[in-house]
Every structure is written in structure tokens, then in C-alpha cells.
Amino acid sequence: MNLPFFVYGTLRPGEINHDRFLRGRTAEEQPGLLRGAVLYEGPGYPYAVEAPDGEVRGELVTARPEAYEELLARLDRLEEYVPGDPRNLYDRVERPVVRDADGTAVRAWVYVAAPAVAARLRGRGTRVESGDWRGVR
């Protein structure tokens, strides 16, 4: 099953990586909300850190079926995600995301801070209180 992607940083429309990675490869992009995570500032890009009390604003992106496998591989490379690698900055996880349009929850891929990065951010990172990267940029 091809899951949509939830993007909350540089892959959002109008951000630096949207055109490079998503343009022409998506069937639909719509606003959404990831519950159970908070947002932290990174070096030019944000990290979603799993936390029971938070929300992160972003877009739910559905890839065109013929572009799905290529897009998944490209996003894994962008996020430097390798399954099981303890050096990952991000882990790709399946999480429910609420669509703004109708309030329904959809299972989606989300790149969240890997455990070591999340621990460091919780200890001394700068949290984006609004949960919206656009408020920082």
C-alpha cells in the first residue's frame, strides 16, 4: 500500500525542497495536522519529535502512483534515512494525520527525529511553540 507523506518543513509548498522533490510527482497536497509530536528548530530545517501533548502543522502529500517508489527513495535520501541505521537523523514512521478538509485521520509516512536526535532536542533544543515551521521562516 502506498501511503501519503506528511511534510512539515522544507518540503512544504513554497519551501526550498518542494519544487526539487515534489513538483510533478504528486496527485494531491492538502493541509493536515500530526498529533502526538512537537516541532523543534534544526539547522535550516525542523524536526518533529514524538510527544503525547503536541501538534505539528503541515501538508499531507499523495504521490502519483507511477512516481511513488521513486519519490519514496528520493525522500529517504534527502532525510538521510536508512532503515535500522543508528546514525539516522530521522526515522520514517507510519502515523495518523488529520486532514483539515474533513477531519478524518489518514495513515501517512512521517520523518520524525531519530531517538538520539530527539533526546538532544528535548534537552537543549528550541521548540517551535506554534507547531508550524512557517511561523519560524
Explained architecture:
The protein is of the alpha+beta class. It has a single domain (5-132), classed as Roll (Hypothetical upf0131 protein ytfp), CATH 3.10.490.10. 20% of the residues lie in helices and 42% in strands. It has helices at 16-22, 68-78, 115-124, and strands at 5-7, 26-41, 46-63, 90-99, 105-113, 127-128. Strands 1-3-2-4-5 form a 5-stranded mixed beta barrel. It is globular.
Give a quick precis of the structure.
Residues 5-134 form the Gamma-glutamylcyclotransferase AIG2-like domain. By secondary structure, this protein is an alpha+beta fold.
First CA to last CA: what distance? 34 Å
Overall 3D geometry? globular
Uncertain segments: none
Major β-sheet, in short? Answer: 5 strands, mixed, barrel
Average pLDDT, all residues: 95
CATH class: Alpha Beta
Rg, rounded, reads: 14 Å
CATH level 3 topology: Hypothetical upf0131 protein ytfp
| Total domain modules | 1
- H/E topology pattern: EHEEHEEHE
CATH superfamily: Gamma-glutamyl cyclotransferase-like
Specify the helix fraction band: 10-25%
What is the annotated CATH architecture?
Roll
Strand line-up across the major sheet: 1-3-2-4-5
